[in-house]
Amino acid sequence: MKTAVSFETDSSVEANCNELSLAAPFRWLRKGWQDFRHAPTHSFTYGVIFAALAWLLVSIFQANESYLWPSLFVFMLFVGPALAYGLYDISQQLERNHEPSFSHERKKAFSEMGHELMLSLMMTMVFMVMVMLTSLVMNIIAAPWQTGVTATLPMSDTTFLFVTAAFAGVLFCVNLFALPMILDQDANAGTATTTSLNAAWKNKSVIALWALLVLVLLAAGFATNLFGFVIIVPVLGYASWHAYRETIIIGEPM
Fold first, then answer.
1. Residue 129 domain-assigned?
2. pLDDT, mean of residues 154-176
3. Coil, strand or helix at 94
4. Is residue 131 scored above 70 in pLDDT?
């Protein structure tokens, strides 16, 4: 049973959330699979696009074409949220007993472009901070003329993995509810981000379990030479929408 949890802040800054049980992530996956079955054409279309993007990323990584990473990152900055919006919109339309349409999904994504880009820029800033911090301390040997205060010490592999996991966890918690909330309530990036972080904090164990399930499913996608992404990514997208609807306390969808 869900119980309301009120945040001790102004409601205009962040929305309230529900307290979840550990069974919730499995329920989200079940609902995500149901949405996939109810909109197979749309689901397979988005799944193929995501699989193609994953293939492109892996190909560039294997080819070590480092000069392509900046342009690819900018490309994903625009395309990634738009594709996720499409999946969220499908679940929302099915929730309203409407027939999903590509035109509606496209219009919804473009109508929220401003908030979407602001959130993407915020995520980019977090990503850049992570890159700068890790680059300052990883595999850098202090020069002889540097003092103990100014010298940069090498980072162990364990520490590097810990720092990376910490930043990845923050990004995961931000995106978990922020994008669906922007689509559903036309919330600004700040409100959506604060709401998502607080909801994740209030349900730490459940969100940790959900993150583990996401990692396992994505690993299964890689294990199938990315073909599994055609099904796995749309199901996860739909499941994320249901996670938002079950966690964040809001009024009727706009």
1. yes
2. 70
3. helix
4. no
